[in-house]
UniProtKB/TrEMBL annotation, chains A, B:
Pfam families: Pyridox_ox_2. This is Nitroimidazol reductase NimA-like FMN-containing flavoprotein (Pyridoxamine 5'-phosphate oxidase superfamily). Gene3D superfamilies: Electron Transport, Fmn-binding Protein, Chain A (2.30.110.10). It comes from Tenacibaculum adriaticum. InterPro entries: Pyridox_Oxase-rel, Split_barrel_FMN-bd. The lineage of its organism: Bacteria, Pseudomonadati, Bacteroidota, Flavobacteriia, Flavobacteriales. It comes from the Bacteria.
Length: 219, 219
């Protein structure tokens, strides 16, 4: 089991019993999603932007327009942090204090650089689309060079990271279990609804199998 | 219609046609959720932390332990930004470039201060719980003074803000509509599953009506 070394950046202080530094566990959290929250600093403010991503080994890839303020800013700073969170349940205790949520979150710290090789950029854009919907890229119109030229791809190398996971029931004060108060969990899940075909499809174009598979596995 | 004045902080550059500065519209996005992403700066890194929140007028309230590094940091900096995002659909175009998501997001900029009055703190904690699950606080064991003392409540005043909304179908290149490629939306929704009562409930305690109502309106 490979772990990130704990330092002042990634050491979890509050709820340290929920902290995870194991790379495989953190990668499982990252690979369960396709939307991350990227931080950048502008005019002294820390600003958070939701972005699509893909992971390969210890790299997270982001992309956007060549004028994207956030991407240009993290490239200039050469570092940032990225957070991914999945909400799993509302935890409703007998007292307000013990209310919580079940979740899986990871915070990554690392450095950023621009990907300049066109073949590498193209492969990463393919991976970002396929992270959103598996096996989707091969069904699309091939990318034009001018589209590639209009896109920045940023490679973020994970230097250190931590995750926090809460995956349990209600934890109330011992004496509160005697109270006639309901407590429990409400599980929360992000689901897909049935795909809606574009109005302007050519006649005879059916919803492809990989899209139906996505819906079946996310409904 | 009250709008936030556009300045360099909140002006949306990329996808400016999707930008919204209208306060009522932004409040609708904020009131549709209970989890926000708060930025803070630590050791030069912008770090993003997911947090529960409640809104009242132009204030966003956060809370946490008196040792919470993020809350202490934004109180010291006296300012931060907060992002809320709701994902509504995957937008699957005929080309990779036009892939997108439908979403509603708001980014708020403002200043922070600690709430010190106990009555005000208690009312805010009640509102944070009721923002997660409406009408829930009244069913709980009353809060102890020592619990209030262990909790920091931060008041964030929205000084400026912007929202971005995408709520439409696929927008492909004109010539790509002739291609025999499927395109469309996969709607995405966050849902609640049936409540799971705590194993240790006293005999005869049923799931309360407000919890059943929550499930019915979020399933």
């Amino acid at each position: 089991m490979q772990e990130f070394e704990k330092n002042k950046l990634n050491r979890v202080k509050r709820g340290a019993n929920r902290a995870v530094y194991d790379k495989e566990h953190i990668n499982t959290i990252l690979d369960a999603g396709f939307l991350c929250y990227v931080g950048y600093i502008y005019d002294g403010y820390p600003i958070t932007i939701p972005m699509a991503y893909a992971r390969k080994d210890d790299k997270i890839y982001l992309h956007g327009s060549t004028a994207n303020r956030m991407l240009l800013s993290i490239l200039e700073a050469e570092k940032t942090s990225i957070t991914v969170m999945h909400l799993d349940a509302l935890v409703l205790a007998r007292s307000g204090l013990h209310h919580s949520v079940n979740y899986r979150s990871a915070t990554l710290f690392g450095h950023c650089k621009k990907v300049v090789d066109d073949n590498e950029k193209a492969a990463i854009l393919e991976q970002i689309v396929d992270t959103m919907v598996p096996n989707h890229w091969q069904s699309l119109r091939p990318m034009y060079q001018k589209e590639l030229d209009r896109t920045i791809v940023v490679e973020f190398t994970i230097e250190t990271a931590s995750a926090k996971i809460r995956n349990e029931g209600v934890n109330d004060e011992l004496e509160d279990y005697e109270l006639p108060i309901w407590a429990g969990l409400i599980p929360i899940k992000q689901v897909a609804l049935p795909p809606i075909s574009d109005d302007k499809l050519l006649d005879g174009i059916e919803i492809p199998q990989h899209i139906l598979n996505y819906y079946q596995s996310h409904k």
